Amino acid sequence: MPESTKGLFDYAAYVSIAAGILAAVGAIGAFVSGAEGSGSFLAFLVLFLGTFPITAYAITHADYMRARRERAEARELIERLLEQNGQAVTKWRQFHSDLDRIIADERAKLQKEVHEKRSEAERMVDFANNREKTIDNLGRRFLNDTTKWVGSKLTGQNFSTQKDRLIKAIEFCRKNEYEVPADTEAELLSDLKREYEAVLRREHAKAEQARIKAKIREEQKAERELEREMRRVAAERQAIEAALAEALAKAAGEHTAEVEALQAKLTEAEARSQRALSMAQQTRAGHIYVISNVGSFGESVFKVGMTRRLEPLDRVKELGDASVPFPFDVHMMISCDDAPKLENALHRALHGSRVNRVNLRKEYFRTNLESIREIVVEHHGEVDYVAEPEALEYRESIQMSDDDFALVEEIQYAAGVADEDDWE
Questions:
Q1: Reported pTM
Q2: Phi (first) and psi of residue 303, to 5 degrees
Q3: Cβ–Cβ under 8 Å, residues 233 and 276
Q4: How many CB atoms lie within 10 A of CB 126?
Q5: CB 293 within 8 A of CB 328
Q6: Rounded to an integer, what distance in angstroms lies between the CA atom of residue 326 and that of residue 95?
Q7: Are residues 309 and 411 in contact, defined by beta-carbon separation less than 8 angstroms?
Q8: Domain ranges of the chain
């Protein structure tokens, strides 16, 4: 029913109620007023009784309409709630469907990830199982190859270097989880030491052969020098004898000064001849020299060697010709019948003072001259020596200014003492 009709019925009900109330009031008033008002009382009573059904109907109808309206509103509310419930159910079903799909997707992803992780874990387990074996193989191969390489590069001069390389290789293996036991390390170092001893023996054999060859060459050279000296002395003696015979013939048996001088020369020539012959017969005779080279090796470094040459200073000059920048200074030149014995005694006594502790064929010693002199006195006897080295060229070189050096260079070049190759 439209809202306007509902309001009209409500209005009529209210009017009927009001009219009934007015009729009742009028009837009561008429009744109170007596006989004159009895007619009015009856009229009002009839009016009241007439309006009561209408009023009751109006009230009942109004209640009905209100209940109907409320029922309609309740139905609308129920329909709206049902619609909302349906929408909620639809959304719930869609959410449930989406949730099932998401769960299925996540389950599939998780299964795939679990499978991949399981495969990776299996690979890691296999790698872990084989890792120790792989490390052992690689470490053993590396250590064996390094040991062979160190041994192949071993010489008489680099034992300490090669030993350090082997120890570093062992430490490298240990840092990379390849354990090298202490007894294995000791065995490897012991093997390296034996290899070094073998290398030393081979090098010593080569050096000994070279020394023997050098000794043979030196002796052959000394023999040639002795032969030349004996021929020269013989020729000199013959010349002196001839001159003496001629002088005696002229002097008719008189002893003149010229004859005496010739006789002295002849005696001296015979002495030189005997000395040369004696040295030729005594192959161990020779000279021990003690020399230094301050400009080349510094202070307190001496070379102690031996030569069998008739002129031992020739050997010293050879040593200072091209191998060093300055000539050697001679501190001692000792002539003795057994030069190798004295040289060996000096080398043994000075062994701890060697400059080169690897190549024992080098004859350089860091010591003082007085110590050398005491050793010579002990094994040979007193000897004259020069305590302070001259080192003239060295001292002149360190004192020479650049201008003086340029001047000396120009003068030597102009005089032909040096050529252009000396400045290349």
A1: 0.41
A2: -105, 125
A3: yes
A4: 10
A5: yes
A6: 105
A7: no
A8: 181-281, 284-390, 392-424
